[in-house]
Amino acid sequence: MNTEVVDTAVGEAPLIFTENAANKVRSLIEEEGNPDLKLRVFITGGGCSGFQYGFMFEESAQEDDAQVERGGVTLLVDPMSIQYLEGAEIDYKEDITGAQFVIRNPMAATTCGCGSSFSI
Question: Which residues of the chain are modeled with pLDDT < 50?
Fold first, then answer.
């Protein structure tokens, strides 16, 4: 996998990192006081639909990570996860039910009610 950083506002990226999501990540990084943090999105086995999404902060990228940048914030995706996230949109929403990161994944055949797991 190429470690080239792609700015979603400018170039072709393997997935869409929305402005809302980038703004929330930037806010969380500022709260932590560590400008080196990057948000990793990943897929693991489990959940009610077979696969589930996960998020965590890391200070550095792995050599084979896909890196997507938006507004000075970097999203990291490992090679195994990117194959399940190709074309997905990583967003952040706030509504009366709460606030959360949301993944809209065109590859997901079914999703669970909470949106944290899916099947292909």
Answer: 1-10, 114-115, 117-119
Percent of the chain with pLDDT over 90: 53
- Domain total in the chain: 1
Closest CA to 32 of 58, 53, 50: 58
> Residue 25: what residue type?
V
Other CB atoms within 10 A of residue 48 CB: 14
Q: Which helix (H) or strand (E) holds 7?
A: strand 5-7
* Residue 24 identity: K
Q: pTM to 2 decimals?
A: 0.78
Q: Which secondary structure element, helix H or strand E, spans residue 28, and what is its range?
A: helix 19-32
Provide the CATH number for the domain around residue 93.
Answer: 2.60.300.12
Kindly state the tokens that stand for 117.
């797991």
Q: Please name which of 2, 88, 73, 87 lies closest in space to residue 39, comparing C-alpha atoms.
A: 73
